[in-house]
Amino acid sequence: MKAAFDKLAKVLQPLPVERIEMRQLDEISVHLQGTLRMGVDPSENIVDAGQIHHNVRNLVVVGSSVFPTSGTATRTI
Asked: Partner of 48 at 20 to 30 A CA spacing, among 1, 40, 59, 67?
């Protein structure tokens, strides 16, 4: 995770990114999903179909927070 975050600024360099924010995760494996609703009505949803925030139009939300559903367990090999 640290290695990926360390390279993120270089990966996003071609985009007009003002700030990269990473929240610290717990030691356990968690999947916070579905916390930002996607839809066309800004009064009921956070992002549009392009994952762009309704109120902050230069903010693109990436990650599983916009997933409408998710699996119930981690897949094991």
From this structure: 1
Question: What residues of the chain score a pLDDT lower than 70?
Answer: 23-32, 71-77
Interatomic CA distance for residues 57 and 29, integer angstroms: 31
Q: Count CB-CB contacts under 10 A for residue 8.
A: 12
Residue 43: C-alpha distances to residues 28, 39, 46, 48, 65 (Å)? 34, 10, 8, 12, 18
Within 13 Å of residue 53, how many CA atoms lie on the same side as its CB?
A: 9
Q: Are 34 and 72 in contact (CB under 8 A)?
A: no
Q: Convert the pLDDT of each residue in 41-57 to its tens digit.
A: 999 999 999 989 999 98
